[in-house]
Amino acid sequence: MLTYYICEHLFYMSKKIIFLFLGLSLSLNVFSQKGTIRGFVSDKETGEPIMFCNVSIEGTSYGTQTDLNGMYTLSKIQSGEHTLVVTYVGYKKLTKKANLKTGQLLTVKLELEKSTVNIDEVEISAERQEMKTDVKVGSIKITNEDLNLVPTIGGEADLAQYMQIVPGVIFTGDQGGQLYIRGGSPVQNKVLLDGMTIYSPFHSIGLFSVFDADIIKTTDVYTGGFSAEYGGRVSSIMDIKTIEGNRKRVQGKISSNTFGSKLLLEGPFSKNRNSSFLFSGKTSYLDKTSNLIYNFPMPYSYTDLYGKLTFRANNGSKANFFGFNFQDQVNYQGVSDLQWTSNGIGSDFLLIPGNSPVLIEGNFAYSEYYISLKEGDSPLRESEISGGNMGFDLTSFQTNGKTKYGFDVYSFSTKYKTYNSVNSKIELNENTSEFSAYVNYQYNADKIILEPGFRIQKYTLGFSPEPRLGIKYLATDVLRLKLSTGLYSQNIMSTVSDRDVVNLFYGFLSSPANLPLDENGEEYKGQIQLARHFILGGEYDINLKMDLQIEGYIKDFTQLTNINRSMTSNYDNEYVVERGLARGVDFLLKYKGKRLYIWTVYSLGMVKRTERENEYFPHFDRRHNVNLVSSYKFGNKNSWKADARWNLGSGFPFTQTEGFYENLTFSDGINSTYTSTNGDLGVVYGDLNEGRLPYYHRLDISLSKTIEFSKTTILEMTVSVTNAYNRENIFYFDRIEYKRVNQLPLLPSGGISLRF
């Protein structure tokens, strides 16, 4: 309830700020003697907005690209009759007349029709065009098409599989695997789904994410150096946008494979076709089929539900309402039972004022996450986080760039209950809030793109001014140099230490106020966690189908709060303050032809953490990581597709065992008899993470066949093999049982899907 009242109070307070922003926007966009042409580009068949297509004025150098909403803006255009030219790969070229009057803001809607002929191989991709008009440092844009270029599990593409091949991303394991992005731990990565914060984006079996790949429009992954538009995390951002439902007809997809099943439905919500619905549901039955198919138990199960309603006005303004429910369970009978659930509801809107070229966006959302773990006779461990956020963004378009500014409010509460080694209860309940405002300016000149920005983060525990800067220099038509730097902060931490190798219980806490003293015996100047990023790189277009990207990075985590895993008594501080340093370089070589796609990644990195005088390598410090991905289409109408992915990674650090001892609890105090009491097996550990596990490597392959019964009815059959040559990759070593625990063995799978 406290969270609700905080959000309500901040909402009313923010209305005044919104009107102030609107007033500034309208005053900054006074029309000259020229005019502005804007509008939306959409798919003629589905009504779905088309991103990153080219819109230009015939016979001139004026041109632009559509954004995520399919919107384009051409400012300061001379009055008179013009011909708009719209091009996009896979669609027919469109031309349309536009008669612009002096001082007019003219709205022109454009609908593209899909091409029925083969696409010319030399057509420049939208991604290549975006590289020449955006800074895009430490950034990867993933589309639905991209997700289907890596081997699929039973025919279903998944974001979790694709994220593992992104430069700078380290994946720690098939079971309970988490993603570590350029030296940052999972809690230092913010994941957004249509503006809603997602606290657990991946299921306990690391092959699957909670997101249905078929409803993903784009996923922007910022591995570092992100602009002032984003904040609240010190490492990375994953911003996922979903599609809108088909406004023209009902369509969907049904699929089933050895791991689970899925249903997708979308269609118009009203007769005027200005609204649509979208529903996706997927479930796993691996816990029931694994013994039958693979002859060993895999006690994982999950259910993911997502729904969305879209309402669109004639001028392009729209509002979305959406919600989700994700559930996960790992049940080792008689040993442990872990369950988590994540829920959320939200809304976002796009407002197109009739008398201003300013774009107004906003969002309201609430999400929560609850996790529990029961191990044997031990008491139940629980963690919960819930919170609401709202934000408003305004974009003003200029001839040579754009200005984006806005603010957001986030309020959340955390509940945490666990027990120490002597079964004493530890319970922490906190409420906190965040307020932020930002401005980001992008200037496009002939040879240089400048993107300075500034963000202010106000936490309950402190204040963080955060300047950001991105630069891209277009040295030649094929060579581009880029740089990004900035300051970042966050006020959230996990209940998992960076020293932990295996821990499925992933809870959350707000940063504590009672930090321990620093190495000089003095209090820290602030309680929030801080980092500085610096990224330098280049892009080289080898030819029309191949390009090379190189980025070097430094992430200086100047202050991190972590769980104190060295506690020996209740008098010890529950937290430690660490510093971190991540350095590395990522190489990406990509080839994209009509039939063949090749993605080659090599990452060299080093991650260190320092607590006082103690320096160690966290368990995700993988020095070398290689990913080779290929996808090849063949046969009549390219109806066959073969995919392969090979991953090679150097060994993770681990703490070696030096010996064992009998751990006596003396539960009866002075009356305990140590000569006859049986204690538990205690472990004598070596220096923290001084050892290294063996190298990891794995090959995944898949083969799919598409049968087109009609234009709208398509059947797809897929067979795939995970860990094709059955490599025994170590996951961790069980010290008590004194045995090696491996990751998943060879896993064949098959699946079938029907689109209609």
Short précis:
The chain is mostly beta strands and 756 residues long. The chain is 7% helix and 54% strand.
Task: Compile the SSE list and pairings.
Layout: H1 2-28, E1 35-43, E2 54-57, E3 63-65, E4 71-77, E5 80-87, E6 94-100, E7 105-107, E8 110-112, H2 126-131, E9 139-143, H3 144-147, H4 159-163, E10 169-171, E11 179-181, E12 189-193, E13 196-197, E14 216-222, E15 236-242, E16 251-257, E17 260-268, E18 275-284, H5 286-294, E19 300-312, E20 318-332, E21 336-351, E22 359-375, E23 381-398, E24 401-419, E25 425-444, E26 448-459, E27 463-474, E28 479-490, E29 492-494, E30 508-510, E31 529-541, E32 546-563, E33 575-592, E34 596-611, E35 614-616, E36 624-634, E37 640-649, E38 653-654, E39 657-663, E40 680-685, E41 691-692, E42 696-708, E43 714-722, E44 730-734, E45 739-742, E46 747-755
Parallel strand pairs: 1-7, 1-8, 12-15
Antiparallel strand pairs: 1-4, 2-3, 2-5, 5-6, 9-14, 10-11, 12-13, 14-15, 16-17, 16-46, 17-18, 18-19, 19-20, 20-21, 21-22, 22-23, 23-24, 24-25, 25-26, 26-27, 27-28, 28-31, 29-30, 31-32, 32-33, 33-34, 34-35, 34-36, 36-37, 37-42, 38-41, 39-40, 42-43, 43-46, 44-45
